[in-house]
Amino acid sequence: MAQQLEDYDLILEYLRDSTIFNYVTQNLKKSLNSIGFSSEFVNYLTGNLLNLEFDKLKERFSRELDHVYSRGFFQKIVPNYFATYVVPEIRASKKVLDIGTGTGILCHLMSQRQDLEQILGVDLLEYPEWKLFGSEKVRFQKVEEGFSVDYSSSHESFNRTLIVYQPNTVTMTWVIHHMEFEKHDYLFKTLHGLIQKPHRIVILEDAYSQELQPEQGKEIFDDFVRLDNKTRDIVMSVYDWTANRILARRNTVKMPFSYVTLERLGKVVEGAGYTITKKRFIGFPERRDINTPQSVLVVEKI
What we know:
The protein is built from 11 helices and 7 strands. Helix 2 runs antiparallel to helix 3.
């Protein structure tokens, strides 16, 4: 709860700007309605954003949050989203590593492919869904955030996992913005240094492009880019806070709000030694919990 309140103080600073408040609440109403939340919940949340009583909200709407978000969104809508944008980029592999696996729903989805032999999901936190999605083919592991460009630091659990497991494919969905900016470089340099070639990394991230036009949601994108760069990051931060702290009720997930553009992310992975094989600005797909821009980046160490 302490982390939740600390985050909320920062969010309140943002929301006291009327432009940000109006933009965020208008878009939350559209996105939350699109995935099945009731008007009662949406109006309560958006109407009380500046004075939220977390326990009261969770108690009043606990069943709806479970039904619409935990089960409906994450177990029905998100798998279709991953099946469209992530899974097609994954080649046949003996070993797949899903970094920041969360509930493990992507691992469960990948397990249905016969050409993916072993799948390991790792996360800083342990999720109850791991018991549901674990199998002979899929396993999950809690790791420490110990990665470093000092490759000799194999005592750290993340580095050790890379050395021992040696995946052919790595997936990362909505992970980068949960890491501080300075750790972005470290992550990809660690992967490049500790995993044998060839291997491929498939990244789905909350990121917009400064060069490409969106494949979906052009009208939403046009409104979004009317905001200045700093305000865009703030809006995305408020969205992400709402999704994690309110909708998913995750009070311990790290939220440094470290957003990068698709182009900036491309420079980071190229700087780590990877070759970009696909760059895709999805834009703003329908039936999303929060209207953050979406991009896919596929890179390889050949």
